[in-house]
Amino acid sequence: MSMDDLILPFQIEATALRGRLVRFNTAVDKIITQHGYPDAVASLLCEAVTLAGLLAGALKYDGVFTLQTKGDGAVRLIVADVTSDGAVRGYAQYDADMLAAAPTDGPPVPRLLGTGYLAFTVDMGENSDRYQGIVALEGGTLAECAAHYFAQSEQIATGIKLAVTRGQPDADGKPGPWRAGGLMLQRLPTEGGEAEVEPEREVETQDEGWNRALSFLGSCSSAELTDPALPPEDLLYRLFHEDGVRAWPAQRLQALCRCSRERISRVLRSLPRDELIGLEVDGKVSVNCEFCSTDYDFTPAQIQALFDEA
Predict the structure, then answer these.
(1) pLDDT in tens, 7-51
(2) What Rg value do the Cα atoms of the chain yield, rounded?
(3) Taking a C-beta distance cutoff of 8 angstroms, is the pair 9, 140 a contact?
(4) DSSP states of the chain as a string?
């Protein structure tokens, strides 16, 4: 089985801590190369897509998990989503002038995103209520912002580590592929909820186990998280073997946009006809998918056909 483009769930046996490991290669590189993003924007989008994979992998849902950041910095918007079938996509919007004037070092969230929020949405279709969680962009990295959300809103202790690298240029100077990896540990409440009172010694043991696991997580390097020669299971064993670690079957991930001419047609059909006529340029109405950069062109006759069908 390929060692990339997957979500690998695991458990630390000694303390029953749950975790997820995400490894991206082809999928995240395809998402990035569909756009001409500057490296700083591309790296941040890689992190967001990886974080979305980690969080989606921790949920039981049938639909779409979406991560979104919105701020007043150079990178105005980031959207990354993961379907329950493992289809991943993402895009970013940025202000080129603000990006050029932004500092070149320092934590990426205040430097590139500025003040704003991080939102998570689970959409399981028309017959289900959407779940959404929102937290302010408080932290230096997306990983810190997400951990802050879990601590503040869900009361779940969470440790997250993200890494992004890019391969060396080839002989012709073409940049290497983007790679990304992520690890997440969570200390879930014991079964029985808050009413269940644990013995003091047991609580101390659980605290020690959590602190040890966080220490091991912190020792993981970016090179290890993204190393194509290091199998994910071997990385988990390297980090957590002292307390025992068990990996469950991995979920495959692939870069796959859900746009289609049929979907775009439904959107256009919902707009006033006069508004569509105003969008016509050079004898056609063009719609560009922000996720995959695919262009969909409609002639006046095709626009008329949409309304005739309606």
Answers:
(1) 999 999 988 899 999 999 999 999 999 998 999 999 999 999 999
(2) 22
(3) no
(4) --SSSEEEEEEETTTTEEEEEEEESHHHHHHHHTTT--HHHHHHHHHHHHHHHHHHHTS--SSEEEEEEEESSSEEEEEEEEETT-EEEEEEEE-HHHHHHS-SSS-HIIIII-SEEEEEEEE--TTSPPEEEEEE--SSSHHHHHHHHIIIII--EEEEEEEEEEPPP-TT-PPPPEEEEEEEEEEPPPTT-TTSPPPHHHHHHHHHHHHHHHHHHHH--HHHHH-TTS-HHHHHHHHHGGG-EEEPPPEE-EE-----HHHHHHHHHTS-HHHHHHT-BTTBEEEE-TTT--EEEE-HHHHHHHHHH-
Place of tokens 């601590």: 151
Give the pair of three-digit tokens for residue 41. Answer: 């924007």
What distance in Å separates the CA atoms of residue 173 and residue 309, rounded to the nearest whole number? 51
Specify which residues 251 forms β-bridges with. 7
Return the SS3 of 277: helix
Domains of the chain: 6-255 (3.55.30.10), 261-309 (3.90.1280.10)
Give tens-digit pLDDT for 246-289: 999 999 999 999 999 999 999 898 888 888 878 888 889 999 99
DSSP string, 117-135: EEEEEEE--TTSPPEEEEE
pTM above 0.90, yes or no: yes
**Strands 87-94, 254-255: parallel, antiparallel or unpaired by DSSP?**
parallel
- Two structure tokens written together for 94: 């940025």
- pLDDT single digits (tens) 105-145: 999 999 999 999 999 999 987 777 888 999 999 999 999 99
